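thread from #wetlab-drylab

HS: before we spend reagent money on co-crystallization trials with S-adenosylmethionine, can we at least see a predicted complex? here's what I'd submit
DV: go for it
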Amino acid sequence: MRFDVVTLFPEMFGIVRDLGVTGRAHTQGRWALHAWNPRDFTHDVHRTVDDRPYGGGPGMVMMAAPLADAVQAAQVARAEPAPVVLLSPTGRRFDQPLAQSMAGGAGAILICGRYEGVDQRFIDRHVTDEISLGDFVLSGGELAAMAIIDAVVRLLPGVLNDDESAIQDSFNPALSGLLDSPHYTRPEVYAGEAVPAPLLSGHHARIARWRREQSLRLTAARRPDLIERAREQGWLTAEDERFLRSLQDLH
Ligand SMILES: C[S@@+](CC[C@H](N)C(=O)[O-])C[C@H]1O[C@@H](n2cnc3c(N)ncnc32)[C@H](O)[C@@H]1O
C-alpha cells in the first residue's frame, strides 16, 4: 500500500512514518509514504501557493495549479492508480467501514488543505473523494490525513500482532459493530477497587459473556445508533436482546 500526501508541511508525517504500529509497519515495508510539497511546483521567486479569495472575505485560498501539478507528479510516480482524496470538513465522515474498505485498496493520494481551503476548480477536476474527520474545523488536512493513514495501516494483514488484534476493537464486525468493553490490568486491586470478578474466573465463556454485556451496556448508553445497526444486520442474539431489555427494565 502506498500513500502520497500533498502537503505544505511534509515533516508532520514523520509521526505516522516513524512511530508506533504504523512506524513498525513502514520499516517492514508494508506501506510506503511519499510527500509532495505544492511549493515545489510553483514558478515564482516567492514560491506562492495561495492568494486572496475572489469575492472578498477573510483568509487565503490554495491555488489550483501547484496542487494539480503535485497530484500529477504523484500519479506518475505510482505503479497503480489511486483515489485522489481531499481532506475537508465538507466531505463524507470517515469511519471504520471506510477504513476497512480503504485497507483493501492500493492506498490514496491525500490532499491536505490549509488556509480557507482549496480553489474549487482543482477539486472539480482532480479530486475523486472528499473525506472529513468529523464535525469540527482543523487548521489543516495533515492531522486528518495522518488519522486516516493510521486507521487504514493498522488493518493491513500482519501489521498488528495477536496481542494487538483489531478484531476486538470498537466498530469491528467481529464485535457486531458495538463499542469495546472496559479493560483491566495489574494490580488486581487499585485504589480499593477490584477487577470485576468474571475476568478473574478463568472461565472463557463467562468472560466472553461479561465482555459482551459490557459492550452492549456501553453502546446502548452512548451510541444507540450502533445497537440499531447491529439489530438491522442480524448481529444481535436472543441473549443479547434479553440483556438489552433487562437494561431498559432498570430505568
Ligand atoms: C481552516 S480549514 C478550512 C475550513 C473551510 N473554510 C470550511 O469551513 O469548511 C483548512 C483545511 O483543513 C482541513 N480540515 C479542516 N477541518 C477538517 C476536518 N474536519 N476533516 C478533514 N479535514 C479538515 C481541510 O483540508 C481544509 O481545507
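DV: Residues 87-90, 112-114, 116-118, 132-134, 136-141, 144 surround S-adenosylmethionine (CB under 6 Å).
HS: ok that's useful, forwarding to the group
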